[in-house]
């Protein structure tokens, strides 16, 4: 149980760090031409045009994933503190929040990927996804591992019975 809880805390912290870095950087998409190189993220720098709907969806779902991931890590930390005032099921709550964070991160990444993938290509401009984009996918996988590990820690933990009263 302690190993699963420790690994869940590690993967949850790393997943939260990855989603926060992906949210705050603008290297999601790179375009390279004969005489220029441009990169963009999900936060437009110039507000001359209204951002597309998929950008708003990616922003919203990524922020939601970060918030749920943060709450999941908080509940994991609470499960490590032996205190009679902390009641309930902090590991189960952490697991549910981590799965919710992973689902919202996956949906955000799928929306961004599908919309960027279907954009028209120019013959002299090479476009590709960059490291911030990949950190978003890594965070989704890490948050999914966090949910699985905290669920395993919850299931392998002691059950309340007459001997614990």
From TrEMBL:
Transmembrane segments: 7-33, 53-77, 89-111, 131-152
CC per GO annotation: cytolytic granule membrane; plasma membrane
Compartments, as annotated in UniProt: Cell membrane; Cytolytic granule membrane
Gene Ontology process terms (BP): defense response to protozoan; inflammatory response; killing of cells of another organism
Protein's membrane topology: Multi-pass membrane protein
Keyword annotations from UniProtKB, A to Z: Cell membrane, Cytolysis, Inflammatory response, Lysosome, Membrane, Transmembrane, Transmembrane helix
Domain of life: Eukaryota
Protein family (similarity comment): Belongs to the PMP-22/EMP/MP20 family.
Biological role: Regulates cytotoxic granule exocytosis in effector lymphocytes, thus acting as a critical mediator of inflammation in a broad range of infectious and non-infectious diseases. Essential for cytotoxic degranulation of natural killer (NK) cells and CD8(+) T-cells and for the activation of CD4(+) T-cells following infection. Plays a critical role in CD8(+) T-cell and NK cell-mediated cytolysis of target cells and contributes to the cytolytic activity via the perforin/granzyme pathway by enhancing exocytosis of LAMP1-carrying lytic granules.
PANTHER family referenced in this protein's UniProt entry, alphabetically: EPITHELIAL MEMBRANE PROTEIN-RELATED, PROTEIN NKG7
Designated name of the protein: Protein NKG7
Organism expressing this protein natively: Odobenus rosmarus divergens
Taxonomic lineage: Eukaryota, Metazoa, Chordata, Craniata, Vertebrata
